[in-house]
Each structure stands twice: as C-alpha cells, then as structure tokens.
Automatic annotation (TrEMBL):
Record localization: Plastid, Chloroplast membrane
Membrane topology label: Multi-pass membrane protein
Domain of life, per lineage: Eukaryota
One Pfam family of this chain: TPT
GO molecular function, one term: organophosphate ester transmembrane transporter activity
Broad class of where this protein is predominantly found: plastid
The UniProt record lists the keyword Chloroplast: yes
Name this polypeptide is given: GLUCOSE-6-PHOSPHATE/PHOSPHATE TRANSLOCATOR 2 CHLOROPLASTIC-LIKE
Transmembrane residue ranges: 109-126, 138-157, 225-244, 281-300, 320-338
A cellular-component GO term for this protein: chloroplast membrane
Domain Sugar phosphate transporter: 108-396
Keywords of the record: Chloroplast, Membrane, Plastid, Transit peptide, Transmembrane, Transmembrane helix, Transport
Length: 405
C-alpha cells in the first residue's frame, strides 16, 4: 500500500480509497509535502492533484462536496475545496455586495439627487432673475453653454478630470444630439423669459406624452394600453394649468412645448447614436455642451446681436447694480453643474429611478419658484399642476413594469 501511494505521488496524482488507513510517516518523500489546514482537492473523480514544483500560495476559490466510496461501505459526503495559485492567473467569480456597501450606494445616490435638485432650483431662480432684468434668452443660453465648456476645459487641462478619448465617429453621432439639445435649451429659456418658472415646468412635465407620441407616429413603436392611459392625466393636467394660468403667454407656452419635443428627439438620438460608447456621463455632457455652443453662437448673434446685448446690459446694470454680473455668472455655472450631476446620476441608477428623480425635481422647482417670486396661483391651476406631475409619476411606473424602457 505504501509503495503504491509513493508511486502515485511521484506521478503527481494520488488516489485514496479510504480515510481509515493512516498515512505512513517513515517515507521522507511524503513528509516533504506541506499540507494546508484545509484539504486542497480538485476533483473527486480524478483524484487529488498536487503540483510539488509550485512554491506559490494557494487560495480557496470554491467549496463543493463529493463522496469517497468503498464497495463494502455506504457513501459518506466529504467537503472538497478548489484552489488556485495566488498569481491572479484566474479571476475570482465573486459578486457579493455587503450591507455596508449597499448603504453606501444608497447614500451616494441620495447625495446625487439632493445635489441635482438643489442646483436645479438655484439655476432656475437666478435664470429668472437674469431674464427679468435682461430679456435676451439667446445670449443667456449661449453664456450657460460657454461657461460649462470653459469649466470642463480647465478641468481637463489641470487633470482634475480625465479628458475623454473621442474620435470622429463619436462627434458625428453626437451632432444630432447637440442640435436637439440646443433647440430644447433655447426654447426653455425663451419660455421662462415670458412666463413664470412654475408654468414652464408644469408644461415641461408633459414630456413623456411627447415621447410616446413621437415614438409611435415617427418611429412606429407600439405601447400597451396602460402606457397610453397614463398619458391622460399628464395631458389633462397641463391643459388645465394652461387654461387657468393668470399670466398666460403664447410665446412662453410654445417655448415649453418646443423644448419638450426637442428633448424627446435628443433622448432618441442619444440612445441610437451613443450605444456602446465608453465616455462617462460627466464628459459626455461636457462634449455635448461644447458642440451645442458651436451650433448656438451664430444663431444667437443673428437673432439678437451685440448691439442689443450691449444696450440691454447697460440697462440691467443701471437697474440691478453690480449684483447683476453675479446673477449671470451664477445662472451659467449652476446650469452646467445641475446638468452634469444629472448625467452622473444616470450613470449610477436605472432609467426608472432617474425618471422619478426628474419628476421630484420639477416639484421642487415649481414650489420653490412660487414661494420666491410670489407667483399668484389659483387653486384650479395648482390642481392641474398636481394632476400633471402625478401622471408623470404613473407613466414612469407603468413604463418600467411593462419592460418597455
């Protein structure tokens, strides 16, 4: 028996038929082996594999069970551990999220949301202050994109953020997204220059309705009945708010509607053109801002022009004073920051969670703007806003549960 075991060991394969027979101690060749406290057994059917030439430590990778058998005894299960050398030659197949990690992830997402909403509220307040004193939405929109582009260029140059690796194909697929983003941004700014911030955001809460209608009639997509039914409170609430708005303005209303339509196309182009790209959310929005700035600048000059801007700037300084410069800087900075954080949030969460967060963001903007600007609101108007926002929330729920996202 001893000779058989020694012979088997020399062949780097050792087979046991029973644990009842103790291992012999008189053979020095066998004593040279250093056993781990845990048995290192690879396969019960193929025997025990030892590589006596390897000096690398072994790591336990998995635990299974097998059984030694004797013809005269009942099979007894024995635990077996698979191991591999600690040279990272085989990756660990472990994907365990500890409770502390889950809590940290929830805190991280919560901080993203809180920062996103806070920055958006601050932007809307300063944006409305600037537009009340300086009613030139095309220049205001241009300054927002220019400020964000400059901030990201400085971040890349100083290595605060890693610059993205892009090619011509990247910018080619980004171009239609930038066109839609530019139109949506300018249209929303035009809307807020004509009507209350709360009214603009009530109308913009109807974006899901535009998304479904565009997807159906232009792209040929079909949706289950519950999705269409969820659009009824959105459309009805927006219509009720528009009819009962005390300071209704057609330009402001149409600006919000055009913004909805443009952002729907932006999302569609993003999904089709950016699939498979490895640019982070922060850098993706930075590239989007730069390309949008190039598209918007000539149109802003053509529509408004430097002469109108110079005259309007002097009037604003005369009315507001030096604080006006701070207002312009704040609205430009916070516009980029809130959009950047929203794209960073989208990297961390599901589309459903992002949609819910966007709905809650509109609630915070509407409520805060009504309080700060003392916007007169009729009860029927407030009811319409509540119905529209509730419809948006229901839409996101139905859309997710039907797995059509």
């Amino acid at each position: 028996m001893n000779n058989a075991m020694i012979s088997s060991l020399n062949q780097s394969k050792l087979s046991f038929t029973s644990f009842s027979n103790p291992l012999p101690r008189k053979h020095s060749s066998f004593n040279a082996l250093k056993f781990s406290p845990l048995p290192i057994i690879q396969n019960s059917q193929k025997g025990l594999n030892f590589d006596t030439s390897s000096q690398k430590p072994l790591h336990i990778s998995s635990i299974g069970s097998f059984s030694f058998s004797r013809k005269t005894q009942q099979e007894k299960p024995v635990t077996v551990c698979n191991a591999y050398e600690a040279d990272r030659s085989r990756p660990l197949d472990i994907n365990v999220e500890l409770p502390d990690e889950q809590a940290a992830q929830k805190i991280k997402i919560g901080m993203y949301f809180a920062t996103w909403w806070a920055l958006n509220v601050v932007f809307n307040i300063y944006n409305k202050k600037v537009l009340n004193a300086f009613p030139y939405p095309w220049l205001t929109s241009t300054l927002s994109l220019a400020c964000g582009s400059l901030m990201m260029l400085i971040s890349w140059a100083t290595r605060i953020a890693d610059a993205p690796k892009t090619d011509f194909e990247f910018w080619k697929t980004l171009f239609p997204v930038a066109v839609a983003h530019t139109i949506g941004h300018v249209a929303a700014t035009v809307s807020m220059s004509k009507v209350a911030v709360s009214f603009t955001h009530i109308i913009k809460s109807g974006e899901p309705a535009f998304s479904v209608l565009v997807s159906k009639f232009l792209l040929g997509d079909t949706f289950p009945l519950p999705v269409y039914l969820s659009l009824l409170p959105i459309i009805g609430g927006c219509a009720l708010s528009a009819v009962t708005e005390l300071n209704f303005n057609m330009t402001g209303f149409m600006g919000a509607m055009i913004s909805n339509l443009a952002f729907v196309f932006r999302n569609i182009f993003s999904k089709k053109g950016m699939s498979g790209k490895s640019v982070s959310g922060m850098n993706y929005y930075a590239c989007l801002s730069m390309l949008s700035l190039l598209i918007l600048t000539p149109f802003a000059i053509a529509v408004e022009g430097p002469q109108m801007w110079a005259a309007g700037w002097q009037n604003a300084l005369a009315q507001i004073g030096p604080n006006f410069v701070w207002w312009v800087a704040a609205q430009s900075i916070f516009y980029h920051l809130y959009n950047q954080v929203s794209y960073m949030s989208l990297d961390q969460i599901s589309p459903l969670t992002f949609s819910i967060g966007n709905t809650m963001k509109r609630i915070s903007v509407i409520v805060s703007s009504i309080i700060i600007f003392h916007t007169p609101v009729q009860p029927v108007n407030a009811l319409g806003a509540a119905i529209a926002i509730l419809g948006t929330f229901l839409y996101s729920q139905v859309y997710s549960h039907l797995h059509v996202i």
